[in-house]
Every structure is written in structure tokens, then in C-alpha cells.
Amino acid sequence: MKSKSLGILAIAIIGVMGIVATAGLDNLPNNLRASAITASAQVSNDRTHFEEQRKRIEQALRDDPALFRTQSAAWKSRIEQAQTEVSKAEAEASALKKLAEGNRREDAKKVEEGLARLQSVRSGSVQQLQSTGDEVERWLGYKRELPKQLEAMKADYDALHAFDVEPAAAPVRKAMTDWPAKRSDLEARLAALTALKTSAEQTWNTSADLRAQVQKGDAGSIDYPALFQLGDRLDQAERQAREGTETVKQLADQLYVNWDKLLVDVEHDRQKIRLVRTRFADAALKDGQTSQEEKWERIEPAQSRRLERNVGMVIGHKPAGKYDSEADSGAQAPGYAYVAPHGQSNSYGGWHNGVWTWLPQYLILSHMLRGPSMPPIMSGDYGSYQRARDRGEIFYGHSTRGSGGSVRRTMDRVSGGSPRQEEHTSGGGFSGSRYQSRGTYAGSRYQNSGGGFRSFSRGARSFGRRR
Questions:
Q1: What is the mean pLDDT of residues 9-18?
Q2: 145: how many CB neighbours lie within 10 A of its CB?
Q3: Predicted TM-score (pTM) of this structure
Q4: How far lies 26's CA from each of 9, 14, 38, 74, 128, in Å?
């Protein structure tokens, strides 16, 4: 009986093995096998491209040694290094081809690792020699069109000679006075622009003898590398003067603007943001002109789930007196960035009986960020917000109504997946999710029939989620 059972088991095992073999369940995944096979053809193309570039560069070095005498050694070294990389790629591709031919699932990890190494080696070798070939062509083009190059040098010099930083400096100097913390940076930028003019004069004078040799047609004695480098230096200086002037003006202008980037909605591969901007005339921050615009921005699909929890939150804040590059990109409760510490006031409002009260001219700013139906900012919530900020965490400020009409305000602190903590107080009268109630941002799919946004609870925590 036992012998019969063992025989049946053996037949079953053989049958399963046959099914596995027939179904290809023991083979490499199709995508890995295809990539390994394709790698061989890619590396073969790399070898062909390498040989073409190598011959072109070496031919140029032989044909015009005077033109390339300062670059010859460096370019030959690049060719040798690229040759080594191509050989490595060929060896890696050969090993991948064998694994593909073996077609065993157990080799899947080896194939993945081999493909990663191959991609790294290929990109280095191909890009390195391609850039060298492009540089060779650039130098040859310089020599072929030498008269045009001299004209371009003269045009760059004339532009720099006529360059005057003062028209741009006027608003920049005002910004230095209004924002003393930025004085040293803005002064340094203006000084650098002024220095470009002095440097251009020196470069132009240095190139005088070389330009004279070109005019005489004395090709044999021209130091082409030196001439081309001086031409590049003038071209770069002219571009820096033009772009640098515009940059310093923009930086000065940014100091007079504060803005908030409010996350209004999130879909699979895009997010809707509301940009609320207030422009001021000076550092007094009074009588600001506030505006808003809404637009969709592309995001990676993998980000949508993480971003969804921050709908209704500010995901970017830049105060007046700072550059756009200094904006805070962390999520924060809308409007809280404008609130003064407890017991103090600022140009936006002040504390009265434990409630933050906006000045009349900033009510529109509050409405754009928080919506007219959002509850006021209370002293206790602001304290929770500050403590969370001190820890580098996020304050969501949820509130839920408990029994007997009391209010339980729940502060979610989120930092690297740390557990939620809560603070409980009484009074207030605000129900639902406080800062993720989605305001009144019409047009978002979170909007409910009453004009506000839906808020759903998951256990003790309140989040805005899709239905």
C-alpha cells in the first residue's frame, strides 16, 4: 500500500514539474530576459559610436596640432578612459547574454544587478566621448569662422563697456534700506556686476595682440586656444552682466512680496494649488495688495496618496523680507504663519481674549487662505502649532465635539510616521475637522453641497479623504 502511494506521489511530482516547465514558471521574467538580450545590441552600438568618435577626434588632432596643442593630452586621456568603459560594458553584456540564454528564474537578481551596472558604465562612456567630440567641433568651428568670432568678441566688449548697473541699482538700494538683513547679499551682487565691466576691459586688452595677428593673416603664429578662451570669457561676462542685472532686480522685488501656496485638491498625477500673494510698498507691511490664482501642477502618481492628507493646508510659505528660494516648503495650518506670539501683535493683527483678530486690511488674506467659514485661531491651538513646529512636526489642529457640547481639539503631530498625540480642552464650539475641513474651495472634488469640504473620521483621527 505504501509502495503504491509513493508511486502515485512520484507521478504527481513529475506531473507538477512538467507543468512548471511547460508553463515557463521556472524561466526568467520576460522583461528581464528581453532587457538582457537587448543589452548586447546596445553595447554593440556603443562600440560603433565610440570608434567613430575616436577616429574623428584623433584625425582632428593630427590635422591641426597647433589648434589643439593645449587640449591634445587631455582628449587622448579621455579616449583611453572611454575605451576602458566600453570594454567593461562589453564584458557585462556578454555575461547578461549567457544568463538570458540559461533562462533560469533563480538568476533574476543577477540579471537585475548586471543591468544596473551596465547602465552606469554605458552612460559614462557614451557621454564622455560625445562631449569631447562636440568640443572638437566647437573649436574647429571657431577657426573656420574666425572673422565672425572676432566680431562677436567686439560686440560683447562693446556691450560690457556700455553696461551701467545704476538703473538697476536704484530699486536694489531701496531694498537694502528696507531690509537690512539682505544688504550684504545685495551689495555683493551689485559689486560683482560692476567688477564684470573692469574684467572685460582687461580681457579685451589682453586679446589685442592675438586679434592683430588674425587681422594680418599670420595663421602660423596665432595662439588659437588663448584667443578662444578670451572670447569665451567675454561672452560669459556679457551674459552674466545681462542675466545678473535681471536677477538682482527680481531678488529685490521678491522682498516686498509674501505668498502662500495652498493645496486645494489632489488627483492621480496632478495637484491644484492656490497661490495667494500680497505685495507691499515697503517694510512697514501696511496696505498690501492681495491677489490669488489657482492652477493645476503635475506630480508623480506615487505622491498623490501622501499629499492627499494635506489638502487644505499651506504647503509653501514665503514671508516678505526673504527670497523665494528661502520659502518654507513644509505643510502647515493655513494662516498661522501670520500670527504673532501670545500677547503680542504685528502688522496683520493681534490677540484679544485668547482669539487672534485680523486687522481689517488682512481679512481678505485670511479668507483666501482659510475661507470665511473657518473657525478663529485660538490661543491654545496656536500654542500647539508652535510646539509642533519646534519639534519639526506638522500641526493639523483637528476638533471634534464630544458629549455634553464640549469640544475635543486633537492635534496630530506627524513626523516620520511618529504616533499621533492629542491635547484635550473644553469650550470653543467647533465641530468636525478644523483645519482639514477644506475651507470653502469651490471646484474641488472634496466640496460638499453646502460649499464646504467633506471631512471623514478614521478612528480618533480626522482626515480629508476621497469617497
A1: 56
A2: 12
A3: 0.64
A4: 21, 15, 21, 50, 40
